[in-house]
Amino acid sequence: MRESAGDRLFAAGIIVILIVVGLVTLFPLYYVFVVSFTEPFEYIQKNGFVLLPETWSVGAYQYLLSTSAFVNATATSAFLATVGTALSLMVTSAFSFGLSRKRLRGRKFLLMMVLFTILFNPGIIPVYLLVRDFGLINSIWSLIIPVLTSGWYVILMKSFFDSIPVELEEAAMIDGCHDLSTFFRIILPLSAPSLAAFGLFYAVAYWNTFFSAVLYINDFTKVPLQIVLRNMLIDSDTAVGGATAVEMASDRQLPTQTIKMAAVVISTLPILLVYPFLQKHFTKGVMLGSVKG
């Protein structure tokens, strides 16, 4: 079919709108990145508005990486994102695989319990009391164990495991594999797209841990990166590594705004770097097992 002039005009209008929306969306990211690398004197000279710095500087990053508080917070967030994601994937995949096999005793009851947790949330105070009674207050594990798995992720991954033929298990058992070896050597390799998708979900959630840390962590040396970033962004006098932001600017001749922007870049960079490598598995992993026929 030949396109009419009206169709071409409509398509051109849609393209223009998408370009404008894309620029509006990307400009804040670009501005944060540019300001974080702007030479301090130039930033002050231009009254805090820089589109393209004449002189690039890494002074803000050098300062942040030299402060023990920021480094400790980054290490805590990295630990949560790696160890927490690995444990969550292990628990979620094992539980989902068990629920997907009809020979599991009490399968329907367990499935109902999972659905119950999706529909009804216990609330902040009961969860806090439970964490306190287990002695996890002020422990890094208080940010992992209470959110180790998700009922919704269990249901989605169970749907994926339902699509794997039972005959594969039977063939593996005939070859001498027991349940654990079948799970680790047969099922998990086939589940790579699903694990990559849900691993990204878990990693983002752990890396962005904030509210749980506010509730359970009292020692500032154990807080994740988001707590430090929040303190820096809302309060120019917040202590970071023993010095306030105002003292920072006077001692190092660094505007507080460049330091804040550098902290934002560091806090978002890991997820931005990981996502492209998992993108090819993302849609496939989420959609596998979602349609039955």
Structure characteristics:
MetI-like fold; globular; 2 domains; two-stranded antiparallel ribbon; mainly alpha; disordered C terminus; 2 strands; single chain; 293 residues
Task: Give the secondary structure arrangement, pairings included.
Blueprint: H1 5-36, H2 40-45, H3 59-66, H4 68-100, H5 107-119, H6 124-133, H7 151-162, H8 166-174, H9 179-190, H10 192-207, H11 211-216, H12 225-234, E1 239-240, E2 243-244, H13 245-252, H14 256-287
Antiparallel strand pairs: 1-2
Helix pairs in contact: 1-14, 3-14, 4-7, 4-10, 4-12, 5-7, 8-9, 10-14, 12-14
What this model shows, in words?
The chain has 293 residues and is mainly alpha-helical. It has two domains: 5-36; 62-287, Orthogonal Bundle (MetI-like fold), CATH 1.10.3720. Helix content is 71%, strand content 1%. The protein is built from 14 helices and two strands; from the N terminus they run ααααααααααααββαα. It has helices at residues 5-36, 40-45, 59-66, 68-100, 107-119, 124-133, 151-162, 166-174, 179-190, 192-207, 211-216, 225-234, 245-252, 256-287; strands spanning 239-240, 243-244. The chain has a two-stranded antiparallel sheet with strand order 1-2. Helix 1 (5-36) packs across helix 14, helix 4 (68-100) runs antiparallel to helix 10 (192-207) and helix 12 packs across helix 14 (256-287). The longest helix has 33 residues, at 68-100. The chain is globular, with a radius of gyration of 25 Å. The two termini are 34 Å apart. The model is unreliable at 237-252 and 289-293 (pLDDT under 50).
Structural classification: mainly alpha
Q: Helix amount, in percent? A: over 70%
Number of helices: 14
Task: Report strand %.
Answer: under 5%
Would you state the CATH class of the largest domain? Mainly Alpha
User: Which geometry do the CA atoms define?
Assistant: globular
CATH fourth-tier homologous superfamily of the largest domain: MetI-like
The largest sheet, given as strand count, sense and whether it forms a barrel, is: 2 strands, antiparallel
CATH architectural arrangement of the largest domain: Orthogonal Bundle
- Counted beta strands: 2
Strand order of the largest sheet: 1-2
Distance between the termini: 34 Å
Order of helices and strands: HHHHHHHHHHHHEEHH
Subcellular location: Cell membrane
Membrane topology: Multi-pass membrane protein
Transmembrane segments: 9-33, 78-97, 109-130, 136-156, 195-217, 258-278
Organism: Paenibacillus piri
